[in-house]
Amino acid sequence: MSSSQTLIHLAQTQRALVAQFLASLAPNPSADSSTQLPPNPPNPLHVLRDSATLLKAHTTKLALLLINKPFTPTAVTSVLRDATQTCLPAMMSAVELCRPDIWGVFLHHQVVAKVRAVMREMVSFLEEVLDTAQENTSNHSKDTLASTGVLWDACDGLIQLETTGIAGLAVLKAQELRDTINDAIQELKEWEEGDGEDEDDEDEDDDAHSTSDDDQEDRERDDQDEFDDMFSAANSLPKDRPDLKERLQTTADKLKKIQFLYAAITKRRLKTFTADIASKKVNILTLDKLMHLLKELPESVDDLANAFYELDADQVDTILASCVANACSAAELLKTDWNGKDDEFTAWVTKWTSVVK
Prior knowledge:
InterPro entries: GCIP-like, GCIP-like_N. By secondary structure, the protein is mainly α. The protein has helices at 3-24, 44-67, 73-97, 100-103, 105-135, 141-193, 199-210, 215-231, 242-268, 275-278, 281-309, 313-333, 344-356. Helix 2 runs antiparallel to helix 3 and helix 9 (242-268) packs parallel to helix 12. The chain is flat, with a radius of gyration of 28 Å. The N and C termini lie far apart (75 Å).
């Protein structure tokens, strides 16, 4: 087998292996906690940091070997074997080590998502290696560099898991979810204000058409008006629904208070989630419950907006009550500090809960 054929075979084999890794990667909150871990297992975030750093170094070498002339399949084969047979299995091992019952569902999901990103980009990178090997020439420099850059970004995501830590990840996620709620508030405000159409102009048009002798034209216009009416709620709050306008104001007020809760939880609880606190399983479980509630709220807010667009007042009341209840559950969950003691935030939560209800 020639050196080019050897490289082609390796690239194809590793591409199939990475595809298998990718297919097996899925969040598994109910992973079997009875699986025996090795004694004194390494920190999975450290394993991911080290393997991602090494993969970046290997792919840097590979990129240079792929774009520079003369093309040397033997050198590429050697580096590619090191990259795929050491770094990638290490990442998969780290996923196994990051068990939800030990590290929490929230962190487990973050790890799986970022390892999946690396594996996806690795498949693309191996395609570049394969194309170059099959042509036995360096003709894909732009594509190779682009593919390498995206893979580096995915590796950086894994490295940042360790530097950011579980508390930092929770803070970033809470801010992202809070921004989502803010977007919903702004969309509802725009819906309340409408699209700026002048109803008087429409009335004048109606008068003009009422004097028309063309009955067919009138019928077509009536059909168009009916069609427009069907979709008017998607553009603006109808002026003949003061009940919805009042509900919209109440909703905006409560959603803003929920935003304040996100900010307060971030400052008083998430940013104080130290490694010592994370070492206690009860705190990991509490964080998981919290992040689940914080994630559910923006999803409910989307449903709330749709209820407004559908002009369904009863559904608005139901979903808003659910949003407030979930927010109060999140607040109550963290009413005391991570050691179960009252502090300034405890008093704030009591006051906030009475106001938002």
